[in-house]
Amino acid sequence: MTGGLLGAAQEAVSYGANTFMIYTGAPRNARRSPLEKLKIEEGWAYMRENGIDSFVVHAPYIINLASFKEDTYNLAVTLLKDELERAKGMGSELVVLHPGAYTERDLEYGVNRIVSGFDSVLTDDYDGPDICLETMTGKGTEIGGSFEELKMIIDKARRKDKLKVCFDTCHAHDAGYAVSDDLDSVMDQFDEVLGLDMIEVFHLNGSLNPRGAKKDRHANIGATADNPKGADNIGFAAIRELAHSRYAEGRFLILETPWLDANTNLYKEEIAALRAGERD
Ligand code: FE
Ligand code: FE
Ligand code: ZN
Known about the structure:
Bound molecules: fe (iii) ion, zinc ion
Largest sheet: 7 strands, parallel
Strand content: 5-15%
Distance between the termini: 32 Å
Number of helices: 9
Oligomer: single chain
Shape: globular
Order of helices and strands: HEHEHEEHEEHEHHEEEHEH
Number of strands: 11
């Protein structure tokens, strides 16, 4: 976001993308520049010229609505409220959020805490962006490692009409779902628990680790051992299948694959390969 919305849109177009996801500032902190500085109008003008009609915002990682600590929880509520307003001000309708981690408490505590956070931000008259709860690996006390956990949150929230899901392929694979070899059964499970229409965003990532490892280390799609960031355990075919499936139709497909260096930017290559359906 150093170049504002305009810069982000230009970068996306340079990769051959027709949408993108941004952090409205550094992902790991909450320092944010004012909306006036984000080149929003210029960004939208550029997007229109280049066939981009929407984009996704990812909330900062430091938001933990599941925390039992008063200050952490209160900060999370404030930051989430801010981020939803910023996203709305920038013209985005979806904010991806990691549900949170319950640390020294338990799942039920964490779920209830997240729900109370949502209830205080998503008030009856709230009309901002939807929140997309991301599927997580379930490492440590992280909530969202199963579809059922996301359902627990959504079922209890007052404004469930504003809650959607972001399906991260690396996270689901690391959580133990058979994304790599039985996509249909994974999607059937998702459909039974949450309903496929809840998915608004897919994060298309490879994983550096075997299924169920609960590590959350993203790999380039279909990367082999000669990739400096490591080999992918999900495989190009599975991600390609997903990208061209009915599950993905009309959804945001976002890469969060490793950045190598300015000279070997794989995003363009990954997007082209997924569109073409083959990898050279
Ligand atoms: Fe995420
Ligand atoms: Fe993700
Ligand atoms: Zn991840």
